Amino acid sequence: MTTNEHAERFTLLRPLLFTIVYEILGSATESDDVLQNSYLRWADVDLATVRDTRSYLARLVTRQALNALRAGARRREDYVGVWLPEPLLLDEHDASADVVLAESVSMAMLVLLETLTPDERGIRLARGVRLRLRRDRGSSGQIGRDGTPGGASRP
User: Fold this and answer.
1) Residue 149's beta-bridge partner residues?
2) 3-state secondary structure of 24
């Protein structure tokens, strides 16, 4: 498998992966760092062994985000006051802004997630991803190896 195929699959799912990591960390900068580290791990994976790209990458970035959250908690001092997540700055002319906005969660959801432990967050997000996968499966009820609904493969 080529590096291009790794990059194509990762890029296709990047908005979803960013949302998962951002929901856990609440910081766009840290989320980008986790996605970079996750891509490096993804680039070493033999694609023939991956049955479901979307699930594999969702699990990979969730674990990486939880690790970053635990490491950050050890380094960080206690914040005094109400914690609010870092806002996402979107360029009005960016065509992907609608996709990112659709994938973003509300402030209330982020505040709720902050009250959960890292393990509870992972469980909550795994359930959300599972529900999204069910919704996206389409008429055949299958998701292909490349992460497309209906088991159809990309040309």
Assistant:
1) 143
2) helix
